[in-house]
Design a protein that fits this description.
heterodimer, A: alpha+beta, 5-stranded mixed beta sheet, 41% helix, B: globular, disordered N terminus, binds protoporphyrin IX containing FE, binds copper (II) ion
């Protein structure tokens, strides 16, 4: 309490002194009869603003160096590389405009700072000039739009055929965890039924165990992708909005309850390759005091949530990896299908309802995922995403963690 | 046009209540908006200092926080729930209460009647209501901070389902805090509509003789377009809020569908959270122009007067604002590229979004040409107007990254966006507001503001603002709205920068308090603005033809007639370097 009062006293003192000093300067100006004469101030601030401007532009330039550690390593996906190129082109265009206009601003203020017997030049408009600086930005924008949309349509191709060897992964966000479902060896996800009958704390995704395709699906606690193999994420959310964000791959897409979304790309850099790159980054090459090793040794990709989803939004971190196909297969073998692990419980659940595992021949279509809603709207929302095979999952093995605090 | 002489003004004695509280006089209402706006800026900025403490020093504890905040900062550290309430309230307060109501309310009220030559607003009563609804909205929002479950914490955009499910397990702030948020916003929208309709009616109908549209000063043009934007864009937000309350209270499914909480499927079926985003941003994007257009107007005026030169390309400036208003209604979904909406839509919005950069660029070039070959008088107001130009350039350019949907894939919802909008909207609009306060201070308070403190305020603010937001551009991988980020190896590298930013946030806050102290002190004790010099800046506009003390009806006799546009500076005619709008054209002078 005393501390708070003391701090307050110091602050009040600070402002009183400031007011006092400011008051004196103004009183002196008034005594000299210069209260509305800014000639001296023009001199001072014309120069000061120019000095500030030089300092500002230098700091701006240096910040690229100071902040170098902050840059992410080379994009680890095919689209990421394209997006980065676009970013760099935009940065050059805007950077040049930024520097030129700022130099003009600082220079003009200094050059035309007011003097007693100088006169301003009356110059109210010029159609030529205005035409010039309407059309040049318009042209620049046209170039940016064309290049941007080319990449955009690459990332979201408007076609429904999938690459043959595509790996499809279902990622579902929930407070505050990711549920990653792999389709298992059959490459097909077990159907999901979003009805009160199927959805339960043991089966949050509403997986239909009567669908045989569900029996080899497994849930992963870390994301594994394969270098050079297109990967497709079918995204969803259970409770609130989340956003599936892979910074190293420059990829992001919201996960929306009730509206399936998706994103796809091809990973281009394995974990090891990126580690190699990071050796030349000042931060990653430095020694981690905890392990006594350079930091890049422990590097892995990360999956983050980019849409505010509640009090532990920041805690939805999941490690991610890009490996070779053979390593991926090795890893797959270590993953146990959820059905296998929870067989007894699931069988009991089925028996209680007079159903049997794998009996269903139902089609694995999206409509089922959407709780049987086959309305045009439900289907149309997905028209530009790849077709979502039934989606599923459950959570019992992913204990909800409340983000490290 | 209003040319009726109000000879009987000043006769009737006003009570204290009528004069200061339930005033219907535009000049008093302007001051009410200004002081309420200042109150909210201090609250909003203090909140940012609190969460900057958390971001800068996530591992330290500050016992005084527990003294102040109790259960929200147990152990001297702000809890994550309270952190999210703070960022939500900070955003809401600054966007709506300060930069919308505080900025437009102050300057529309002050400048519209003065600069068009009117005795007051078309409906002084509606004008008063507009203020009182604004105050009510604010009080409701303030009250929500004291709720057991905390204030709303879904971000200033309040996306459902987070804001749609009334369940403390999902989000404590989504209980009463959110109801109050929407209720308060509804009051705010009413205030804004009452104000806006009145501004439009006043500008269109109450111009004095000779004040044609093409003779309007640019602040008035800007405020006219602002009001049009507000009147068209706020109602959709009101409907969005209503529908969301239906979902929350009556369990309808406008925005909610297939929601599983704690393993239980809720009954909502068929709604779409994306619909809310469309409705929200249909207001939300125009809203950013509601904030920046008055800033454009003030900047143009202050630059021109203090350069002793006409605004370059007056008509181009007006057309640019007009095009921005039109296109401003066609770009809202650039906030939603990654929302799951159809990617084809994204391409259309990319096109319009980058198109809107063209009129913005025209404005910047015109401002630069306005000061070119001027005879610049570098008052504090002028410094802030120049600062505005710098900030608008810096922030506008980063818009070109975000507007391009492909580049927005990685950038969306990261610190890059935070940097973009704080510079182009937050800091820039504040700079224009500062410029306006310094420039019209004598008119508002009958005294001059202390210039020395004004310069100190300027340099500290521009340096600290850039020191805060330039580094954020480089934190472009870090998602916004993270309470801590040390749990990610990708992001924990930002810990030192984050401290740096927090230090400058505190410095900047201190500088703003200096400004407030200066306002209060100068309004009470500053050098008097007297009838000896009624036009200290040598300005052409009508407000400087009114008497030094505020009188009801603004002009004691007839309202002056207008003969020319407002930007005849340094024309070479007459014996001063300005030609007030009330001076008839002389032989050899060109009309504009
Ligand atoms: C030069 C033209 C501009 C372009 C192309 C542009 C583009 C964008 C885009 C695409 C976003 C969305 C970024 C994202 O969330 O991923 C954005 C965010 C934003 N912009 Fe701009 N912008 C421009 C100018 C402005 C101006 C003049 C203002 C305000 C005065 C403004 C205020 C905002 C705000 C407040 C946000 C963030 C809202 C939020 O997510 O909380 N922008 N801008
Ligand atoms: Cu989240
Ligand atoms: Cu926008």
């Amino acid at each position: 309490m005393l501390n708070i009062l003391l701090t307050l006293a110091v602050i009040i003192l600070f402002y009183t002194v400031a007011l006092f000093l400011g008051g004196i300067v103004e009183r002196v100006r008034a005594l000299k009869g210069e209260e509305l004469d800014y000639t001296k101030n023009n001199q001072t601030h014309g120069k000061l603003f120019l000095i500030y401007g030089v300092f500002f532009l230098l700091m701006f330039a240096f910040s690229f160096k100071y902040m170098d550690f902050a840059s992410l390593p080379k994009a680890a996906s095919n689209w990421g590389v394209e997006i980065d190129e676009l970013f760099v082109i935009t940065a050059w265009i805007t950077g040049i405009i930024f520097v030129v206009t700022h130099i003009a601003l600082f220079y003009f203020v200094w050059k035309y700072r007011g003097e007693k017997d100088k006169k301003a030049t009356f110059f109210a408009h010029s159609s030529t000039l205005e035409l010039v600086w309407t059309s040049i930005p318009a042209l620049a924008m046209a170039v940016l739009v064309v290049m941007g949309l080319k990449t955009w349509f690459n990332v979201f191709p408007n076609k429904k055929t999938l690459p043959a060897n595509q790996l499809t992964i279902e990622a579902t966000g929930k407070q505050f965890n990711w549920m990653l479902r792999y389709p298992g060896p059959d490459g097909v996800f077990g159907r999901r039924v979003l009805s009160k009958e199927f959805v339960s704390p043991d089966n949050e995704l509403g997986i239909d165990w009567t669908d045989p395709a569900s029996h080899d699906d497994f849930f992963a606690s870390e994301l594994y992708m394969v270098k050079g193999r297109p990967v497709r994420f079918n995204l969803g959310a259970l409770d609130v909005l989340h956003s599936f964000y892979l910074p190293h791959f420059r990829m992001k897409m919201d996960c929306v309850p009730g509206v399936p979304t998706g994103i796809g790309f091809t990973p281009t850099m394995t974990d090891d390759e990126t580690r190699e790159l990071l050796k030349s980054n000042s931060h990653w090459a430095s020694i981690d005091p905890e392990t006594n090793e350079p930091r890049y040794v422990k590097f892995n990709y990360e999956l983050a949530c980019a849409e505010l989803c509640g009090k532990s939004h920041y805690g939805m971190m999941m490690p991610a990896h890009v490996v070779s196909q053979s390593k991926f297969e090795e890893w797959t073998k270590t993953q146990k299908p959820f059905f296998e692990v929870n067989k007894d419980r699931i069988q009991a659940w089925l028996a209680a309802r007079n159903l049997s595992a794998g009996a269903s021949k139902g089609s694995n279509n999206y409509a089922a995922f959407n709780g049987g809603d086959t309305s045009k709207k439900a289907l149309k929302l997905d028209s530009n995403m790849t077709k979502v095979e039934g989606a599923t999952h459950n959570i019992a093995d992913n204990k909800a963690t409340e983000g490290k605090q | 046009m209003a040319t009726i002489a109000h000879g009987d003004h000043g006769h009737h004695e006003e009570s204290f209540l009528e004069k200061y509280i339930f005033s219907q006089d535009h000049k008093m209402i302007a001051r009410q908006f200004l002081f309420t706006g200042i109150f909210w800026s201090i609250v909003g900025a203090a909140m940012s200092v609190l969460f900057r403490l958390q971001l800068g020093w996530p591992n330290e504890t500050f016992p005084f926080l527990e003294t102040l905040l109790g259960k929200w900062a147990e152990g001297g550290r702000i809890s994550n729930e309270f952190y999210y309430s703070l960022v939500t309230m900070h955003g809401t307060i600054l966007v709506f209460f300060v930069l919308t109501a505080g900025l437009s309310g102050t300057f529309a009220n002050l400048l519209i009647p003065y600069q068009i030559g009117a005795r007051d607003m078309a409906s002084p009563f509606m004008n008063m209501l507009s203020y009182w609804f604004f105050l009510l909205a604010g009080l409701l929002m303030l009250f929500s901070l004291f709720l057991q479950t905390g204030a709303a914490s879904g971000g200033w955009t309040m996306y459902p389902p987070l804001s749609g499910i009334r369940d403390a397990k999902v989000n404590a702030g989504s209980m009463w805090g959110t109801d109050l948020w929407f209720f308060s916003m509804s009051m705010f929208i009413v205030s804004s509509l009452l104000g806006g309709l009145n501004y439009i009616a006043t500008i269109l109908n109450l111009r004095t003789k000779g004040m044609t549209m093409w003779r309007l000063p640019l602040p008035v043009w800007a405020l006219l377009f602002t009001a049009i934007l507000g009147v068209l864009a706020f109602p959709p937000l009101l409907s969005a809020a209503l529908l969301l309350e239906f979902d929350r209270i009556f369990d309808t499914s406008f925005y909610l569908s297939d929601i599983v909480v704690g393993g239980n499927l809720l009954d909502y079926k068929g709604g779409s959270p994306i619909l809310y985003q469309h409705l929200f941003w249909f207001l939300g994007h125009p809203e950013v122009y509601i904030i920046i257009l008055p800033a454009f107007g003030i900047t143009s005026e202050v630059l021109s007067v203090n350069s002793r030169k006409p605004v370059f390309g007056y008509k181009a400036m007006v057309y640019a604002i007009g095009i921005i208003v039109l296109l401003g209604f066609l770009v809202w979904a650039h906030h939603m590229y990654m929302s799951g909406m159809n990617p084809f839509l994204g391409s259309i919005f990319t096109l319009f979004t980058l198109l809107i950069a063209v009129p913005s660029a025209v404005k910047v070039f015109n401002w630069l040409t306005t000061i070119w070959k001027g005879n610049l008088r570098l008052t504090p107001a002028m410094m802030f107007a120049l600062g505005f130009v710098s900030l608008f350039i810096s922030g506008g350019l980063t818009g070109l990254f975000l507007g391009n949907s492909a580049i927005d894939i990685p950038l969306h919802d990261t610190y890059f966006v935070v940097a973009h909008f704080h510079i182009v909207m937050g800091v820039a609009a504040f700079f224009a507001m500062f410029a306006g306060v310094y420039h019209w201070f004598p008119k508002m308070f009958g005294r001059y503001i202390n210039d020395t403190l004004g310069y100190v305020h300027f340099y500290t603010t521009i340096i600290s603002a850039y020191a805060i937001f330039i580094p954020m551009h480089f934190m472009l991988s870090l998602p916004r709205r993270y309470y801590v980020f040390s749990n990610y190896q990708t992001f924990n590298i930002f810990e030192d920068v984050s401290k740096f930013i927090s230090v400058f946030a505190i410095i900047s806050f201190m500088a703003q308090i200096l400004f407030v102290v200066n306002i209060v002190y100068s309004a009470l004790k500053g050098r008097k603005f007297t009838s000896e010099n009624l036009n200290p800046w040598g300005s052409n506009t009508l407000e400087w033809t009114t008497p030094a003390e505020h009188i009801h009806g603004n002009w004691p006799g007839e309202i002056p007639e207008v003969y020319r546009w407002p930007y005849d500076y340094s024309t070479g005619h007459g014996n001063t370097d300005f030609r007030p709008q009330t001076e008839p054209l002389q032989e050899g002078e060109d009309a504009h």
